[in-house]
Amino acid sequence: MRKELIYPAPDTKMVQMARNFIDYIIKNPNDCFKEMATLNIMTGKNFSPNDFLEFKNYFNLRDLAELAVLPTAPKVNDLTKDEVTMLLNNIYKYIKNGDNLKATYYIELLETSFNKVGEISAYVFQPLNMGKVQPIVDYLFNSVV
Question: b/e for 101-126, b at 16 or more Cβ within 10 A?
């Protein structure tokens, strides 16, 4: 697998620091300006307290922290059909095994790479589509301009 497609290893020290900030933010969403600013500077992202209040329904605190510190998934302009098929199979495997972090990361990678933000996740999480890879591959490669 090429480098751009490998899930990045999170910095465990940064994950722990982010976890502490996120825990405080979730418990004090109206009184967390300093913690929110520090977390955003630390991660280079632009989170709001509402992001974590929403995400806590899908991720445990440790996974939220890892999600916060992970780099943004890259845009890979030259993905092949075989690579996309492999990534989608892995996404379904991660979902089945409860590894929502990796599933989320790879969905973001595909959506960014194909300029289809929100579309792949909407399809993947439809119960009737669970495990169906070929329709997504066909859609992505037939809709590329």
Answer: bbbbbbbbbbbbbbebeebbbebbee
In tens, the pLDDT along 6-54 reads: 999 999 999 999 999 999 999 999 999 999 999 999 999 999 999 999 8
How many CB atoms within 10 Å of residue 19? 19
Distance, in Å, from the CA atom of 125 to the CA atom of 130, rounded to the nearest integer, reads 7
Distance CA 117, CA 72 (A): 13
Place of tokens 């490669």: 141
DSSP letter (8 states) at residue 4: G
CA distance 48 to 82: 37
Query: pTM, whole model, 2 decimals?
Result: 0.86
Q: What is the pLDDT of residues 62-84, one digit of tens each?
A: 999 999 999 999 999 999 999 99
